[in-house]
Amino acid sequence: MCRRMKSGPLALALFMAVIAGCAGRPVADPEPQVVRVEVPVPVPCRVTIPLAPAWASAGLRKSDDLETKVRALVAEREQRIGFEVLLLSAAKSCQ
Fold first, then answer.
1. pLDDT tens column, 18-66
2. CB-side neighbour CA atoms (13 Å) of 91
3. 18 belongs to a structural domain
4. Domain containing 69: what range?
């Protein structure tokens, strides 16, 4: 009941089409070209963390007058602001 197909002419036509498609390609490959690709490479951050200064209010005593205490606290505030600047610059150098 099965009929056999005659695939001879069809196979020959397919083979000739494949051969004709390959005839237009050059035989030698083109010369390789050097391409430079810049990729960021992670580098471990090595920053020295600044040491905290000796705070101005560390030497205060209970017996000191109010003016001395306020001056020490104002000086310590300036020290803290400067120390924060150092810490922020160290943190930004790693970004």
1. 777 666 666 677 788 999 999 988 888 888 889 999 999 999 999 999 9
2. 6
3. no
4. 50-95
3-state secondary structure 6-35: CCHHHHHHHHHHHHHHHHCCCCCCCCCCCC
Distance CA 76, CA 58 (A): 9
With CA atoms as reference, report the closest residue to 53 among 73, 82, 74. 82
Asked if residue 70 belongs to a domain, the reply is yes
Q: Is the pTM of this model over 0.70?
A: no
- 34 to each of 26, 31, 37, 39, 93, how far by Cα in Å? 21, 10, 10, 16, 34
How many structural domains comprise the chain? 1
In a domain, 81, yes or no: yes
Residues sharing a CB contact under 8 Å with residue 52, sequence separation 6 or more, in sequence order: 83
- Residue 63 in tokens: 């017996």
Q: In the chain, how many H helices and how many E strands?
A: 2, 0
Residue 63 lies inside a defined structural domain of this protein: yes
